[in-house]
């Protein structure tokens, strides 16, 4: 009687472990799919792939402009903000080009180097942009990214999805997939050993 209870408990444990392993594998595959349709296209679409050094030539704050909505979106209100324009000297080619914060900044407003997130207090927005302008004037030389193919003559300060960020995004589903497969293999080995012992 005790032997049957132990066998039943062992089978239940194996079933739960097998379900856990299969669940981990399924979750990791869904994470791979989500990363593949969200992050990877933005990474491959970006042409600013080569890092170089940029030197600030001028950083001016012009009159207020209106933050344009994304095409087809109506949930974001248009709000005015000071337009910061930063021009840099590109070390790789020696050209005078305009600097943008990220790829998204160029798409949202190509006239300004920085597009703030919507803030309720206009004074906070103004103070933030003035601080960014003073930092550019203070730290005049810094790394930036440019397009080696020449399709984009401007540069960006940082990429939305750099190579390290993409690898880090794939790290967790890979660990989960590996752990799930390991659990499944161990359960199968345990079942094989149990059958082999019973047969002997």
UniProtKB/TrEMBL annotation:
Location(s), subcellular: Membrane
Family: Belongs to the KCNMB (TC 8.A.14.1) family. KCNMB1 subfamily.
Family annotation (PANTHER family): CALCIUM-ACTIVATED POTASSIUM CHANNEL SUBUNIT BETA (PTHR10258), CALCIUM-ACTIVATED POTASSIUM CHANNEL SUBUNIT BETA-1 (PTHR10258:SF1)
Cellular component terms per the entry's GO annotation: voltage-gated potassium channel complex
Biological process, per Gene Ontology: detection of calcium ion
Transmembrane region(s): 20-43, 166-187
Predominant cellular place of this UniProt entry's protein: membrane
Keyword Transmembrane: yes
Topology within the bilayer: Multi-pass membrane protein
Entry protein name: KCMB2 protein
A molecular function (GO) term: potassium channel regulator activity
Keyword Ion transport on entry: yes
Keywords, alphabetical: Glycoprotein, Ion channel, Ion transport, Membrane, Transmembrane, Transmembrane helix, Transport
InterPro entries documented for this protein: K_chnl_Ca-activ_BK_bsu (IPR003930)
Superkingdom as given in the UniProt entry: Eukaryota
């Amino acid at each position: 009687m005790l032997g049957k209870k132990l066998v039943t408990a062992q089978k239940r444990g194996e079933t739960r472990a097998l379900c856990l392993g299969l669940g981990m594998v399924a979750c990791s595959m869904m994470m791979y799919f989500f990363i593949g349709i969200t992050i990877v296209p933005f990474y491959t679409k970006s042409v600013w792939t080569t890092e170089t050094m940029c030197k600030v030539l001028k950083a001016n704050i012009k009159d207020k402009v209106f933050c344009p909505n994304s095409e087809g979106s109506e949930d974001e209100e248009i709000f005015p903000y000071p337009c910061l324009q930063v021009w840099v000297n590109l070390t790789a080619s020696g050209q005078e080009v305009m600097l943008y914060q990220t790829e998204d900044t160029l798409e949202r407003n190509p006239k300004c180097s920085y597009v703030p997130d919507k803030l309720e207090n206009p004074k906070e927005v103004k103070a933030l942009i003035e601080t960014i302008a003073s930092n550019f004037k203070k730290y005049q030389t810094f790394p930036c990214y440019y397009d080696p193919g020449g399709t984009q003559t401007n540069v960006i300060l940082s990429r939305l999805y750099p190579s390290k960020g993409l690898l880090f995004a794939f790290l967790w589903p890979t660990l989960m997939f590996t752990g799930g497969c390991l659990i499944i293999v161990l359960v199968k080995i345990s079942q094989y050993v149990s059958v082999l012992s019973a047969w002997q």
